[in-house]
């Protein structure tokens, strides 16, 4: 099968198209014939070698944690409502011999696969689960009650663009942090207030929320400089490791999505919310496998308002 892989860690230039043996579904697993695979930050970390020890990966290394395609093999003992030939989406965690989704076929635990959103093509569908699940976990972590105020940094980005509408659907007041040019977009997502990013952010947020926000979901990795915008005892949610100490009774929650990819009900809920129009699936550009290095360079340059997707 065709796969985008690396045999040594490094920059985008190490990505190669290789011909690898087709994997087959074992007990508790299913196989997906991949039609589209979205690019995620974790794919860059894998390419650079940052996941090697944690996931005990075997070479060659195939990135890719978000795929859409067709269910084409069901392993022994799998009880699933899905049938061969169904259009599906899956979240993939490469571990050991299990490779990522930048390939024509990928094998995943059956719990990590759900029916694809209806009326959505494979390219758009491939952008849903990884960032959607990250957003869902980030909102759930502090368990804020309806009516509470949450600040979302990077509100126009891949994760933040899902946090805003999901938080609104949960009844939270959402204060979005974004570039002025992105204000119309994040208001379309449902933000109640929009505050410009950049120096002095915490002070500007305090002008909008004088008593301090109940929570911050830091999708843009602003870090500890935003803590003054939180009330005493507020909650800070991050998607990366941090090396600073919280203050004023603030609790810090770190989201690690790879630990939750078996939560089928959460994946199904995201699929349903995409069908209902709560979530907007945004694609910036598609690439062929042979353009993998170009795609990763574009991803690392940033400034995207949609996802980059490989098509197979």
From TrEMBL:
<dbReference type="InterPro" id="IPR051603">
    <property type="entry name" value="Zinc-ADH_QOR/CCCR"/>
</dbReference>
<dbReference type="Pfam" id="PF08240">
    <property type="entry name" value="ADH_N"/>
</dbReference>
<dbReference type="InterPro" id="IPR020843">
    <property type="entry name" value="ER"/>
</dbReference>
<dbReference type="InterPro" id="IPR011032">
    <property type="entry name" value="GroES-like_sf"/>
</dbReference>
<dbReference type="GO" id="GO:0016491">
    <property type="term" value="F:oxidoreductase activity"/>
</dbReference>
<keyword id="KW-0560">Oxidoreductase</keyword>
<dbReference type="Pfam" id="PF13602">
    <property type="entry name" value="ADH_zinc_N_2"/>
</dbReference>
<protein>
    <submittedName>
        <fullName>NADP-dependent oxidoreductase</fullName>
        <ecNumber>1.-.-.-</ecNumber>
    </submittedName>
</protein>
<dbReference type="InterPro" id="IPR013154">
    <property type="entry name" value="ADH-like_N"/>
</dbReference>
<feature type="domain" description="Enoyl reductase (ER)">
    <location>
        <begin position="10"/>
        <end position="310"/>
    </location>
</feature>
<dbReference type="InterPro" id="IPR036291">
    <property type="entry name" value="NAD(P)-bd_dom_sf"/>
</dbReference>
<keyword id="KW-0521">NADP</keyword>
């Amino acid at each position: 099968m065709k796969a985008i892989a690396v045999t040594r860690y490094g920059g985008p230039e190490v990505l190669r198209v290789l011909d690898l043996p087709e994997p087959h579904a074992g007990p508790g697993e299913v196989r997906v014939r991949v039609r589209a695979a979205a690019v995620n930050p974790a794919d860059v970390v894998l390419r650079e070698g940052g996941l090697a020890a944690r996931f005990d990966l075997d070479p060659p290394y195939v990135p890719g944690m978000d795929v859409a395609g067709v269910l084409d093999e069901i392993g022994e003992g799998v009880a699933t409502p899905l049938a061969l030939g169904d259009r599906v989406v899956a979240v993939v965690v490469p571990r050991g011999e299990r490779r990522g989704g930048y390939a024509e076929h990928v094998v995943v635990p059956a719990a990590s696969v759900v029916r694809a959103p209806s009326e959505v093509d494979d390219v758009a569908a491939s952008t849903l689960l990884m960032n959607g699940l990250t957003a869902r976990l980030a909102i759930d972590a502090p368990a804020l009650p309806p009516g509470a105020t949450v600040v979302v940094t990077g509100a126009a980005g891949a994760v933040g663009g899902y946090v805003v509408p999901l938080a609104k659907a949960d009844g939270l007041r959402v204060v979005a942090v974004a570039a002025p040019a992105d204000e119309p977009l994040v208001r379309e997502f449902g933000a109640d207030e929009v505050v410009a990013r950049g120096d002095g952010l915490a002070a500007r947020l305090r002008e909008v929320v004088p008593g301090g926000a109940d929570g911050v979901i830091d999708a843009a990795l602003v870090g500890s400089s935003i803590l003054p915008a939180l009330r005493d005892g507020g909650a800070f949610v991050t998607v990366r490791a941090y090396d600073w100490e919280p203050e004023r009774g603030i609790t810090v929650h770190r989201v690690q999505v790879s630990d939750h990819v078996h939560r089928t009900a959460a994946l199904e809920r995201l699929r349903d919310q995409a069908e209902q129009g709560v979530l907007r699936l945004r694609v910036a550009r598609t690439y062929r496998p042979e353009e993998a290095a170009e795609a990763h360079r574009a991803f690392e340059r940033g400034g995207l308002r949609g996802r980059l997707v490989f098509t197979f």
